[in-house]
Specification:
This protein is mainly α. It has helices at residues 12-23, 31-50, 57-81, 93-115, 132-161, 170-194, 199-216, 228-231, 238-250, 262-285. Residues 5-9 and 13-24 have low confidence and may be disordered.
Length: 293
């Protein structure tokens, strides 16, 4: 017994692992398969972002419809109270309110969704297929889905229950809604890149911008009715141009003279580039120890 040497028994898992490494071959996906996989991942992540606040998707849609309808009612009573309803455009007053509030909601909701998307250190990013780009895209698409569906429900309900409505140029008008959505994505990227450095400051800035846009977006009046002095207080805001151009495409008898389509496009591209650079810089330098207590 003393002269007998004790041999260590090597378990089969190590041998199996070595064999698997010897005969394992990395397969590269074709560009088409990679695009399909990425699209599927964005789709499932978008569904998760839509149902994140509410387990029932229909309940979440109804809440969004109720919020927009509440803003429409408040807007109607305020305009009637201050006597500015007569200064609106010739045409359906509900469309006049929708062109302001729906574009404003699409912009602010998207900005909030993108700025609160999964950061580089979130738990969802620990899964292999997930990236920050997928989180940002899913948050933006989820916000666009809810806002477009809300607009469709309200317009169809008004068209059926009250009076038929006609939109002069529906495709360009929808294009301006998409532009407001893209501008919200760009601003959300800027806030997303700033959030790990100063989360409280970002929350304050987002709240200030949202409340300032309630008036500075021009959803309560049209640009053609403003004097040159008042126009200077709103002309800087790309959302002001987007809403005014939307009304030009919706109403056949309104032609915007003081706003343009090109200015929001240039502003959106500049802000988007700043946001992408800021998010990339933050993602490379963010650390989990920043939030340690």
């Amino acid at each position: 017994m003393q002269g007998r040497s004790v041999k260590r028994r090597r378990g089969p898992p190590r041998q199996i692992g070595i064999v698997q490494q010897m005969f394992h071959r990395e397969t590269q996906k074709s560009p088409l398969m990679a695009a399909v996989t990425l699209s599927e991942l964005i789709f499932h992540s978008t569904v998760r972002s839509v149902r994140q606040g509410h387990g029932n998707a229909i309940y979440g849609l109804l809440i969004n419809v109720f919020q927009t309808a509440s803003m429409l009612l408040v807007f109607y009573f305020v305009m009637t109270l201050i006597g500015m309803r007569g200064a609106a455009l010739r045409g359906d007053y509900f469309l006049y309110m929708m062109t302001g509030i729906s574009v404003f909601m699409a912009h602010t909701k998207t900005m909030g969704a993108v700025s609160g998307a999964g950061a580089a250190l979130s738990q969802m990013q620990q899964h292999g297929p997930m990236t920050t780009a997928v989180s940002i895209a899913s948050a933006a698409l989820g916000a666009l889905y809810l806002q477009v569906l809300t607009m469709a429900v309200l317009l169809y309900g008004y068209h059926v229950l009250f009076t038929p409505i006609t939109i002069s140029q529906p495709i360009p008008a929808m294009g301006m809604v998409i532009m407001a959505w893209l501008y919200g994505v760009a601003l959300g990227l800027v806030l997303l890149g700033m959030r790990p450095w100063a989360p409280r400051l970002v929350q304050i800035l987002q709240s200030i911008y949202t409340r300032a846009s309630m008036f500075a977006s021009g959803k309560m009046f049209v640009a053609n009715s403003l004097s040159y002095t008042l126009l200077q207080f709103f002309d800087w805001n790309p959302l002001f141009h987007i809403i005014d151009q939307t009304r030009g495409f919706v109403f056949i008898n309104y032609n915007p003279h003081h706003t343009s389509v090109s200015y929001p496009i240039y502003a959106m591209l500049v802000v988007a580039m700043i946001g992408m650079m800021g998010e990339f810089y933050t993602r490379r330098r963010v650390s989990a120890s920043w939030s340690a207590r």
